[in-house]
Design goal:
The complex is a heterodimer of chains A (474) and B (234). Chain A is of the alpha+beta class and 474 residues long. In chain A, 44% of the residues lie in helices and 26% in strands. Chain A folds into 2 domains: 177 residues, no CATH class; 223 residues, no CATH class. In chain A, a hairpin with a 2-residue loop joins strand 2 and strand 3. Classes of the chains: A alpha+beta (474), B alpha/beta (234).
Chain lengths: 474, 234
C-alpha cells in the first residue's frame, strides 16, 4: 500500500514528465498496433482474394502446366490477313463473320480424374475435390476484318467458369460463397445445363435466377446467385463438373475434357500439415504445380501488394524506429529523474531501505508509465485502425489469366502471334483489424518499455552508496 | 554501544588522498550524548557516516554492539540501520511528495510491520514531537522547525538505540534551534537513547554530556561537560 501511495505521489509530482514518457510510449505502441492492424487487414484482404479463388478450407491446390499450344492438336486460331479473317480449330478453318465461344483451360493443363482419388489417399490429407477452372471467351469477328477494313480484333469477352464436383462440394470456390437467391447446385444437376452465377457478375450483366447464360454456345439456366466473400476474385459461373468436362475444349488430341480436371483442391488435416501435404503431393505428382495460399499470394499484383509492402516493410520499420525513440526518451527521462532524486534515495537507504526495494519503487513508477502508455497506445492504435478502415481507398488485386486464344496477324512487317491474357481485377476493402495477439504484443511492449526505462536508473541506484548519495547537493 | 579502534577514512580525489578521519579511537556508552564540533571539512560528518554504517572505514574497527560495521555485508549493515539507528539531517531530507505521517511511516517499511501497527506508531511519534495535527501536511506546507520535528519523529518511530544527528539545527533560527534541542534533550532523557550530534553551534554542543572536537580528522573528547543534561535517573 505504501508502495502504491509513494508511486502515485511521485508520478503526480513529475506529471509532465510522466505524460511525455507515457505519450511517447503510447505513440510507438499505437503505431505498432495500427501498422499491425493494417498489415492484418491487407493479409485478410489477400486471404479473401485467395479464398474466393479456391474456397474455404482449401489449403493446397494442385494444377498442371498448360500444354504447349499446337495448332495441329487443338485450340482456336484466329488468322487475319489480306484475304480477311479466318477462325481455325485444328485443321478446320472457317472464314467470314462469326462468333467464337470457347470454354478452355488456358492457365492449367489436364489432370486425370483418378489423380483426385490418389491424392485423397495421402496420409495427411483430410479431404479432396477436383474441379475445372475454365474461361469462356467470346469474340465476334466482323466479316470486314483484314480485307481492306480494320486489322484489329475486337476485345474478347471472357468470364470464369468453374466445373464443380457435386459429389465433393465441401471444397472449391463455390464452398466459400453464400447463396443469396435461388438454390445451389445439387448432385441431381450433374448432367443438367444449369448454373449458379456470382452476384457481382449477375448484377453487371442483369442476370437473375431463371435467366440464361451462354457457355460454349450452350444456354445454361441460372438456378441460383452466389455471393463470395468480399475481396475475392471468384469465378463468374459455376456449372456441374460433368457438363464442364463435356463442353470444355480438349487438350492435345482430345475434343473435350472427359475424365479430366485441372485443379485439385486439398484440405490438410491441420495447418501444421500443409507443408507435409505439399511435399507428399509433389512426390506423387512430380510434374504438377502444388500451390499453397502462401505461394499463391505472390501471384497477386495491384495496390493490394503495394499496401502489403507498405504495411510490412515501411510501416514495421517506422514502428520499430518510433518505439526505439520512445524507449530512449523514456530511459533518458527516468535517468534524469533518478539523478534528481539521488539524495532522496540516499535518505531511504539511511532509513534502512534495501537497494532492491528502492529499485522496485523506481521500476514500479516506470512500468506504471509504460502501462499507461500501453493503454493509451492501444486506444490510439484502435483509433488508427478505425481511421484506416474508414478512409483507406479500396485496394485492387489483379490476377492475370490466359484467354486460351491465339491470334495471328500478317502485315507489312511480317506475321506475328500472341496469346492475350485477361486481367481479373477485384477491388478489396481494407479492414484494419486489431487482434488479441496485437493487444498482447502492445502490453508486452509497454512492460518492456517501462522496464527498460527504469532499468538504467535502477542500476544506478543499486550502485549508489548512501554516504555518496547524501552528500549530493540538489 | 560503540567502540571505534584505529578508524581511518581516506578519500581519493584524483591523484590526491584526503584523510577525513585519522586513526580514531572512541568509545560511546549506552545512553550517552556526545556532541562533535569542529570546522567544516575536518571529518565530523564522515565520523557520523561511519557510526551509522553509511560508509565504511578505510581501516579500523567500528564495533556496534559487538558487530564490526566495517566487516558486515551490505544487507546486514542495512538491517542494522533499519532497526537500531535513527538519522537526522541538517536539510531534513523529507520526501517532498509524502505527507508528514507517510515520511515517518517510511522508516517502518523495512521492518515489515503491519499497516495498522505502523499507523499507530506514526501517530504516537508525531504526537511526541508535537505535530499530531500536522500528519497529513506535505513537507512544503510545514516550517523548517516543523520539518525537522517530522525528521526527528521519523528517526525515533522505530525506537532505535542510537540517534545520529548531523547539524540538526543548522538550517533553523535561534528560537526554533532551542525548541529542537530541547526536544532532542527530552527524548534522549525519556527514551534512554545514545545520541551523537554533530554541530558547529557551541550553544547546542554545551547541552551534550560529552563534547568532542574534530580537527584534521582527529577527535579529542571532553567528558561530562554538561551534568545538567545527564541521562535519565533510574
Amino acid at each position: 500500500m505504501f508502495f502504491i501511495t509513494y508511486l502515485r505521489r511521485e508520478l503526480r509530482r513529475r506529471l509532465r514528465q510522466a505524460i511525455v514518457v507515457a505519450l511517447g510510449l503510447a505513440l510507438g505502441i499505437g503505431l505498432v498496433i495500427t501498422v499491425s492492424a493494417a498489415a492484418a487487414g491487407v493479409s485478410n484482404a489477400q486471404a479473401g482474394v485467395l479464398k474466393g479463388l479456391y474456397g474455404v478450407g482449401t489449403d493446397v491446390t494442385v494444377t498442371a502446366k498448360p500444354e504447349q499450344f499446337n495448332p495441329a492438336h487443338g485450340g482456336t486460331r484466329i488468322q487475319i490477313g489480306p484475304g480477311g479473317g479466318r477462325v481455325c480449330h485444328g485443321s478446320t478453318c472457317k472464314s467470314g463473320a462469326q462468333t467464337v465461344d470457347n470454354l478452355t483451360s488456358p492457365s492449367y493443363g489436364p489432370l486425370a480424374s483418378s489423380t483426385v482419388d490418389a491424392v485423397a489417399k495421402l496420409r495427411d490429407v483430410a479431404s479432396v475435390a477436383g474441379g475445372l477452372t475454365l474461361n469462356d471467351t467470346q469474340i465476334k469477328i466482323p466479316g470486314s476484318i483484314g480485307s481492306g477494313g480494320t486489322g484489329t480484333l475486337p476485345q474478347p469477352k471472357t468470364f470464369g467458369v468453374n466445373g464443380v464436383d457435386l459429389s465433393r462440394s465441401a471444397l472449391g470456390p463455390l464452398s466459400a460463397g453464400k447463396i443469396t437467391s435461388g438454390r445451389n447446385l445439387a448432385r441431381s444437376d450433374a448432367s443438367s445445363d444449369v448454373a449458379v452465377v456470382d452476384t457481382n457478375y449477375a448484377a453487371a450483366h442483369r442476370l437473375k435466377v431463371g435467366s440464361t447464360i451462354t457457355i460454349a454456345k450452350k444456354a445454361f439456366k441460372i438456378i441460383g446467385l452466389v455471393r463470395q466473400p468480399q475481396g475475392g476474385s471468384p469465378p463468374d459461373a459455376y456449372i456441374p463438373l460433368g457438363r464442364a468436362q463435356a463442353l470444355g475444349q480438349g487438350f492435345g488430341s482430345k475434343k473435350n475434357m472427359d475424365g479430366q480436371v485441372n485443379t485439385i483442391y486439398v484440405a490438410a488435416k491441420s495447418a501444421a500439415d500443409i507443408p507435409v501435404v505439399q511435399k507428399e503431393i509433389a512426390r506423387l505428382l512430380p510434374k504438377a504445380t502444388v500451390t499453397t495460399s502462401a505461394s499463391l499470394a505472390s501471384q497477386v499484383t495491384g495496390s493490394l501488394t503495394s499496401a502489403d509492402r507498405l504495411a510490412n516493410d515501411l510501416g514495421r520499420w517506422l514502428s520499430v524506429l518510433v518505439l526505439i525513440a520512445a524507449f530512449a526518451v523514456a530511459s533518458l527521462l527516468t535517468m534524469a529523474a533518478v539523478a534528481r532524486r539521488v539524495r532522496e534515495f540516499g535518505t531511504l537507504k539511511a532509513l534502512g531501505w534495501r537497494s532492491r526495494r528502492i529499485v522496485a519503487q523506481v521500476l514500479g513508477e516506470s512500468v506504471t508509465m509504460g502501462i499507461i502508455g500501453g493503454v493509451v497506445g492501444v486506444g490510439l492504435g484502435i483509433a488508427g485502425a478505425a481511421i484506416i478502415t474508414r478512409i483507406a481507398p479500396k485496394l485492387s488485386a489483379t490476377l492475370a489469366s490466359a484467354t486460351g486464344q491465339r491470334f495471328f496477324a500478317a502485315g507489312p512487317a511480317g506475321a506475328s502471334s500472341s496469346s492475350p491474357t485477361v486481367d481479373h481485377t477485384v477491388l478489396v476493402p481494407l479492414h484494419a483489424s486489431v487482434t488479441a495477439g496485437v493487444i498482447a504484443l502492445a502490453v508486452l511492449l509497454a512492460l518492456v518499455g517501462g522496464l527498460l526505462a527504469g532499468a538504467f536508473g535502477s542500476w544506478r541506484i543499486s550502485q549508489l552508496r548512501p554516504a555518496t548519495a547524501l552528500a549530493r547537493v540538489e | 554501544m560503540y567502540q571505534l579502534t584505529g578508524v581511518s577514512k581516506i578519500y581519493q580525489k584524483g591523484r590526491r588522498t584526503v584523510p577525513a578521519v585519522r586513526d580514531l579511537d572512541l568509545t560511546i556508552g549506552d545512553g550517552e550524548w556526545l556532541a562533535v564540533q569542529g570546522r567544516t571539512g575536518h571529518g565530523k560528518t564522515t565520523l557520523l557516516q561511519l557510526l551509522g554504517g553509511l560508509d565504511r572505514p578505510t581501516s579500523g574497527i567500528v564495533d556496534f554492539d559487538g558487530a564490526d560495521l566495517a566487516k558486515l555485508r551490505e544487507a546486514q549493515v542495512t538491517r542494522v540501520r533499519a532497526v537500531s539507528i535513527g538519522f537526522i539531517f541538517q536539510t531534513f531530507n523529507l520526501v517532498p511528495t509524502l505527507s508528514a505521517a507517510e515520511n515517518v511511516e517510511a522508516a517502518l517499511i523495512p521492518l515489515g510491520i503491519r499497516r495498522a501497527e505502523r499507523r499507530r506508531k506514526v501517530a504516537e511519534a508525531l504526537d511526541s514531537v508535537g505535530l499530531g495535527d500536522r500528519a497529513r501536511h506535505l513537507p512544503g506546507e510545514l516550517s523548517g522547525g516543523q520539518q525537522q520535528r517530522v525528521a526527528i519523529a521519523r528517526a525515533l518511530v522505530k525506537e532505535p538505540k542510537v540517534l545520529l544527528a548531523d547539524e540538526p539545527t543548522g538550517n533553523l533560527d535561534e528560537g526554533t534551534r532551542d525548541e529542537i534541542i530541547d526536544l532532542l534533550g527530552r527524548l534522549w532523557r525519556d527514551l534512554g537513547l545514545t545520541l551523537v550530534l554533530v554541530t558547529h553551534d557551541s550553544t547546542v554542543a554545551r547541552r551534550a554530556q560529552h563534547v568532542g572536537i574534530m580537527s584534521k580528522g582527529r577527535l579529542t573528547v571532553r567528558r561530562d561537560v554538561t551534568p545538567v543534561a545527564g541521562p535519565p535517573v533510574t
